[in-house]
Structure formats: structure tokens, C-alpha cells
Amino acid sequence: MRYLVTGGLGFIGSAFIRLLAAERPEVEIVNLDAMTYAANPANLASIAENPRYRFVKGDITDPAAVTTAIGEGVDAIVNFAAETHVDRSILDPEAFLRTDILGTHTLLEALRERRIARYLQVSTDEVYGDVESGESLESSPLRPRSPYSASKAGGDLQVLAYRTTYGLPVLITRGSNTYGPYQYPEKLIPLFVTNLIDDQSVPVYGDGLQIRDWLHVEDHARGILCVLERGELGEVYNIGGGNPRTNLDITHRLLAGCGRSFESHVRHVADREGHDRRYAISSAKAHALGWRPEIEFERGLEATIAWYREHESWWRPLKSGEFLAYYQRQYAHR
Ligand code: TYD
User: Fold this and answer.
1) Is the same domain home to 37 and 152?
2) Closest residue (by CA) to atom 25 of ligand 1?
3) Which residues, 6+ apart, have CB-to-CB distance to 89 below 8 Å?
4) CATH of the domain at 248
5) Measured from the CB, is residue 204 less than 6 Å from ligand 1?
6) Ligand 1 close to Cβ of residue 205 (< 6 A)
7) Is residue 248 assigned to a domain?
8) Which DSSP letter does residue 230 get?
9) 41 vs 202, 271, 318, CA distance in Å?
10) Residue 279 belongs to some domain of the structure
11) Is residue 234 domain-shared with residue 250, that is, in the same domain?
12) Do residues 80 and 95 share a domain?
């Protein structure tokens, strides 16, 4: 068995590759990654020398790179490659359209030309848009409201259209907000933890009462593997953590974990444009396949804070250069 994993140097993709390497010794792994700002070879340092692992540098929008990565053939493609940060999509939408829509299209075309048993598109609960009450089902309408979520929804719709039109063997997972080790420090949890370790303030958008459903990255990776192996072709599966928390709740936990006070370290800043208030999904369909999140949230968050404390050498180099320019652009005017 050989799997092509795209975006495998990123946060969730690298967790998936580490899981495959540990638990599926029969699977060879090819990792196609464009090495954009959020990719980090250090995420896979533990398996770089593994003889069943091969790295190909390339962009999923480039058909030649995809052909090289597929090589003699693969049994499955799992597409993690994406631009993922909502705030960046508000500043520069174009990269999101390119990777998340055109890149998906390039992979689907490769799937159309070859015999590949399964294609899994890693998507997000953000495609359902703001959920005022209740929970989104896989059949709920897509109402994306940011350039990021609209691009991801565009990818999902391409995948489903290729199922209907060409009968391709596709699956989609829609995960909830993911946290854990190796997450690039632009997202809420790693940004706040690393700022607090450095005795800097943390910027809470608006009233901080927005709700996200938190999922540990290792549970997310296991959910994707479960759907890849057991999901029904043509189907969509929500992968939710079942841990709805307000951003203020998360902020309080991170402050406590880092020994900082709310008064001295929280800065209330202007809200994100078009900020989705709440995401909530039902994961009953994935549960029926046998997947359940296993990492209890409070324990997972504590372990994550400890990981960032113990791995300054991983994140400190990231909070320089490109990141500082972005941080300035994103937060200075707030
Ligand atoms: P984020 O990690 O960017 O994920 P997403 O927008 O995809 O859910 O943000 C999670 C929540 O935290 C979201 O409601 C926005 C909020 N947030 C802040 O309040 N301040 C910040 O600096 C960031 C990055 C996020």
C-alpha cells in the first residue's frame, strides 16, 4: 500500500503521517508539500529517516509535481494541503482560491486519469458558516462567510461534483477547530501560549464570546484515518471534538496554565471582519464508523501548553521574519 499525503509538513498533515508511520507499518508514505510559511520539516523529524517515507517538494496546483509524487501509482490520496488561516484570507484571498480550489481541482484531475482507490479531502466545519443554534449535519447547507471558508467550500463542491460526474472514489472530512503540538503560532491557542510564555499580551477579538468546538490534533488524525479506511465513498463525515468553548474560556485557561493574569496580559482588540460567532457540528456519522475523540480537553490543553514550554526551539524561530511582518499587519491597527 502507498498513500500520497499532500501538505504533510503542516500541522494536521504531519500528525496524520506520524500516525500512519506508527500504526500502519504496511503503508508507504509519499508527502507532497509546497513548503509554504506554515510547513515545517521539524514536524516530521521523527520519521525523516524512515525507509517507507518519501518527500517531494511541490505545489498541488502544479500537475507535474502531482505526477511526480504519484510516481508508479498510489492507493490513496489524502489532501491536507491548504491555506488555512481566516485572518490571512481577509488580507490576501487569492492564495486561498489557488490552493484550496485550484489545487483540489488538480488532484481530482490526477484521480480521473489513474486508478486510485480512494481520495480523501480534508475540510473544515467552517464551510457551514455561523451556526446560531443546534448542530450542522453533513447534509446542512454550506454558508461560508470568509474567503478561507468559501475556498474550502469550493474545494468540497468540486470533490462532490467529481463524484457525481465521473464516479470518482472520494470522501470528505470536516473537522472542527484543532489544537495540539506543532501548530503554527498564528492560530488562537499557539499564538496565545507563545505570547504568554514571552510575557506579551494576547489580542482577544471583540467580546471573546465566540464559540469553537476544540479537537485534539491526534484525535483529528485518527478520525481522518478511520474515514479513509471505513467511510462510504461519496460521503462527507464531520469530525468534531465535542468541546465547545468560548474564546474567553480558552484565554482564561491559557493564562492560568502560563501563570499570567487577565488584567495584565489581555488586550481587547477590534473584532475580525465577518467573524463567525459559533461553529457546532454533529459527528454522529463518524461515531457510527467507530471513531470517537479520546483526548479529554482539559488534559489535552494542559499537555499542549507544556509542549510549547518544552519546545521553544521549535516555535521561537517561527516567530520572526515573515511572522513578525504578518503580526504587524494583522494586529498593529487593532
Ligand atoms: P483561529 O485559531 O484563527 O481559528 P478559526 O478562526 O479558524 O476558528 O481563531 C479561533 C477563534 O479565536 C476565533 O473566534 C478568532 C479568535 N481569535 C482571537 O480572538 N484573537 C486572535 O489573535 C486569533 C488568532 C483568534
Assistant:
1) yes
2) 188
3) 83, 96, 146, 147, 148, 151
4) 3.90.25.10
5) yes
6) yes
7) yes
8) H
9) 28, 33, 12
10) no
11) no
12) yes
27 plus 174 within the same structural domain: yes
Residue 302 within a domain: yes
Sorting pLDDT into bands at 50, 70 and 90, what band is 163?
very high
Q: How far is the CA of 294 from the centre of ligand 1 (A)?
A: 24
Q: What was the pLDDT predicted at 174?
A: 99
- Would you state the pLDDT for residue 173? 99
pLDDT band for position 29 (cuts 50, 70, 90):
very high
Ligand 1 atom at minimum distance from 251 CA: 19
**Domains of the chain: total:** 2
Could you tell me which of 148, 96, 91 has the C-alpha nearest to residue 125?
148
Task: Give the pLDDT confidence of 138-149 residue by residue, as tens digits.
Answer: 999 999 999 999
Say if residue 26 is in the same domain as residue 151: yes
Is residue 111 situated within a structural domain? Answer: yes
Residues 140, 265, single domain; the answer is no
User: For residue 130, what are the contacts with CB-CB under 8 A and spacing of at least 6?
Assistant: 143, 145, 276, 277, 278, 279
Distance CA 151, CA 228 (A): 22
- pLDDT band with cut points at 50, 70 and 90 for residue 30: very high
**Confidence class for position 308, pLDDT limits 50, 70, 90:** very high
Do 308 and 197 form a contact (C-beta atoms < 8 A)?
yes
Look up residue 291 and give its three cell numbers.
471513531
The mean pLDDT of 37-60, rounded to a whole number, is: 97
Same domain as 114, residue 34 = yes
Compute, in angstroms, the gap from residue 188 CA to the centroid of ligand 1.
5
Regarding the beta carbon of 174 and ligand 1, being less than 6 Å apart is answered no
**Which residue range forms the structural domain that includes residue 208?**
183-212+244-269+297-331
